[in-house]
Amino acid sequence: MSSNVELSFIIPALNEEKNIGNTIHSIHKATGSQACEIIVCDNGSKDRTIEIAESLHATVIVDKFATIAGLRNAGVKNATGAVLVFIDADVQLAEDWLQNLELEIEKWPQDRLIVTGSTCLIPSTSSFVEKNWFAKLTRTATNYINSGHLIVSREMFEKIGGFDQTLKTAEDYDFCQRAKDSNGRLMEAQSLKAYHYGFPTTLWAFCSREAWHGREDFSSLRKFARSKTAITAALNITFLSLSLITYALTFNVFATLVFLFLSIILSLTLTGLKFGMDSPGKFLKTTICCELYLLSRAFSVFYRQTRPSQRE
What parts of the sequence cross the membrane (predicted)? Predict the structure, then answer.
């Protein structure tokens, strides 16, 4: 990477003492002698997150009341880099990350209106839900870059005014849509490997996470109408509810099974469309995760927890 291109890593964090040290160490390993800065945007941690980050020469900004989007924007205000790298506090970069970024930058458009990054990979030791849901996300086509590992030029960031800090979730999706509306290009780059050590490891944590992420889709009728996931989740819960109501009121087993069958077909279809076909056993496991995903997204309208527990 040419010497006039500097990297700014911006990491939102809240009580991440178990992860922040490994995350920062991975940045140092991946960047080597390349000039870069690491900015940890803390949301009011009560553990040793700040202490650990500062001991590893990261700049720490504290804002107890900001949304995650607000934390990222605050990080950029204190950053000097031409390339802004947003990663979560439980994400670790592969050692060849920088050399692959250099290759990707050569492909960037001349106006540098670009958003890139990649879907995070799972660790080598993984749970049922990590193997059968999150590991398969790297196969799927997407219309946005997840902010767990999102890279953007300063030109692109400044043109659209950064993240919408009024949003509590889905700020990365909104960011990418506004970038596209402003003639920006989304270029996912799976060569930029990053590993997420904060994926849910239990089904309950998975459901909690997805309920949290789905809240923004149900915050208004306009957002609901624009979200295929929210519409599918609502349709799925409708079929299941009709199945229960039909049985409770009429004891009509056939009608009950029809609605239940429609829900199953919906989950099978979404799994196939999202991940493609697999062996029957693996496909069934992913379909179970898909059904839980849809149910969690539907119940996000009732979700009131400030932030989900990612790992249990």
Answer: 229-248, 254-275
Last residue of one domain, picked from the residues 183, 199, 215: 199
Q: What is the pLDDT of residue 138?
A: 74
- Whether residue 148 contacts residue 120, with contact meaning beta carbons closer than 8 Å, is answered with yes
Q: Does 5 have pLDDT greater than 70? A: no
Same domain, residue pair 280 and 170: no
In a domain, 2, yes or no: no
What is the domain extent for residue 295? 204-302
Identify the pLDDT of residue 303.
Answer: 77
What distance in Å separates the CA atoms of residue 223 and residue 170, rounded to the nearest whole number?
A: 11
DSSP secondary structure, 220-242, as one string: SHHHHHH-HHHHHHHHHHHHHHH
Position 306 confidence tier, pLDDT thresholds 50, 70, 90: low
Are 223 and 163 within one domain? no
**Looking at residue 176, what DSSP letter applies?**
H
Give the count of domains, the chain: 2
Judged against a pLDDT cut of 50, whether residue 109 lies above it is answered with yes
Tell me the mean pLDDT in the region 175-188.
Answer: 96
**Which of the listed residues 199, 226, 253 is the one where a domain comes to its end?**
199
Residue 59's SS3 state is strand
Q: Is residue 36 in some structural domain?
A: yes
- R_g over Cα of the chain: 21
Residue 214 and residue 219: Cα distance in Å, rounded?
Answer: 9
Does the residue 309 lie in any domain? no
Classify residue 264 as exposed, middle or buried by CB count within 10 Å of its CB (0-12, 13-18, 19+): middle
Q: Evaluate if residue 310 carries a pLDDT over 50.
A: no
